[in-house]
């Protein structure tokens, strides 16, 4: 962004606050859910929580969501269930939060952290101190008692971006990491550290999807509540039963199922003519 653009962007931020824009899409609108998410993500940018690049990432996610039918497909349901078992088995689980996640599902993430229980750490790719603090503030506003990330005293080996910095008590020493809307480099680096990496990514072709132990090809806003539900369902199982329920999951096979679903849907889709 050029300096001129930046100051205009800041002015827009101010005018947004003055305008106090309200969500105006009627509930009856056929694209209501999708437009509501657009509103949340653009508000996130204007409130200094989401990076402008987050809009592009959201658009890519939207496109894949459209293709899968904006619903949780069966292979995603399987990966969410397996993720729930792994998170319950973890000794030091953590949820990594970025600007898109904080804009779209802050309350759901806080509640998930409480029920697992798992720590929450802010870790962003397009680093700015202001945005970092704004995300922490937002997570606290939605009920997070402790949000890690402020005192990042460790580095994830093999990463050059700002995302390498993390906290010793959080991401660095965690055994299972939930990294929604991640970039492939960090997912790979976390795996190299020996962690079990769970990602949520609507793009089954992404590097993140390929390198993670579990890839949930679903929208963040659908998968987090479902993950919460599975945690509740599985939490009384013995450790042995939990381990058994993780054994049947294979990420490569699951991604193939997702791709087969997409292939079928594209092949069978019949364009409608007019009204
Ligand atoms: O806040 P920061 O600085 O950490 O930046 C966050 C973004 C998301 C901008 C950053 O991590 C990034 O650039 O991510 P990527 O590499 O664009 O990857 C994001 C992935 O998330 C893409 O493959 C999208 O398809 C996917 N995605 C976008 N929105 C959703 C999603 N997946 C699930 N649910 C969504 N709502």
Account of the 3D structure:
The chain is of the alpha/beta class. It has twelve helices and seven strands. The protein has helices at residues 3-19, 32-46, 52-68, 74-89, 99-104, 106-115, 129-141, 184-192, 207-211, 220-234, 239-247, 251-268, and strands at 94-97, 119-122, 154-155, 165-166, 176-180, 196-200, 214-216. A five-stranded parallel beta sheet has the order 2-1-5-6-7, with helices on both faces. The chain has a two-stranded antiparallel sheet with strand order 3-4. Strand 5, helix 8 (184-192) and strand 6 (196-200) form a beta-alpha-beta unit. Helix 4 crosses helix 10 (220-234), helix 4 runs antiparallel to helix 11 and helix 4 (74-89) runs antiparallel to helix 12. It is globular, with a radius of gyration of 19 Å. Bound molecules: ligand PTJ. Ligand PTJ binds at residues 51, 53-54, 57-58, 60-61, 64, 98-100, 104, 124-126, 181, 183, 200-203, 206, 219-220.
N- to C-terminal separation? 43 Å
Count of distinct strands: 7
Mean pLDDT: 91
Q: Which strands sit side by side, in order, in the main sheet?
A: 2-1-5-6-7
Question: What's the shape?
Answer: globular
What molecules are bound to this protein?
Answer: ligand PTJ
Cα gyration radius (Å): 19 Å
Helix content: 40-55%
How many distinct helices? Answer: 12
Biggest sheet character: 5 strands, parallel
Strand content: 5-15%
Structural class: alpha/beta
List the secondary-structure elements in sequence, H or E: HHHHEHHEHEEEHEHEHHH
Sequence stretches where pLDDT stays below 50 over 5 or more residues: 1-19
């Amino acid at each position: 962004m050029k300096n001129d653009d930046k100051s205009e962007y800041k002015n827009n931020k101010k005018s947004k606050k003055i305008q106090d824009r309200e969500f105006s899409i009627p509930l009856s609108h056929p694209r209501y859910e999708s437009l509501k998410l657009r509103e949340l993500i653009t508000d996130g940018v204007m409130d200094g929580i989401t990076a402008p690049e987050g809009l592009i990432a959201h658009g890519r996610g939207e496109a894949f969501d459209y293709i899968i039918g904006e619903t949780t497909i069966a292979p995603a349901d399987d990966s969410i269930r397996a993720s729930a078992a792994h998170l319950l088995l973890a000794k030091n689980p953590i949820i990594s939060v970025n600007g898109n996640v904080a804009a779209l599902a802050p309350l759901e993430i806080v509640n998930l952290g409480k029920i697992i229980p798992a720590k929450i750490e802010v870790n962003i790719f397009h680093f700015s101190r202001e945005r970092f603090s704004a995300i922490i503030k937002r997570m606290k506003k939605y009920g997070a008692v402790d949000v890690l990330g402020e005192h990042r005293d460790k580095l994830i080996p093999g990463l050059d971006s700002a995302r390498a910095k993390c906290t010793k008590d959080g991401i660095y020493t965690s055994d299972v990491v939930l990294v929604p809307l991640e970039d492939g480099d960090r997912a790979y680096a976390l795996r190299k550290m020996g962690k079990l990496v769970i990602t949520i990514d609507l793009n089954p072709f992404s590097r993140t999807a390929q390198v993670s132990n579990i890839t949930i090809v679903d929208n963040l806003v659908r998968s987090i509540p479902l993950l919460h539900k599975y945690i509740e369902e599985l939490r009384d199982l013995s450790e042995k039963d939990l381990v058994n329920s993780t054994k049947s999951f294979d990420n490569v096979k699951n991604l193939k199922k997702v791709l087969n679903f997409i292939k079928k849907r594209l092949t069978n889709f019949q364009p409608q003519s007019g009204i």
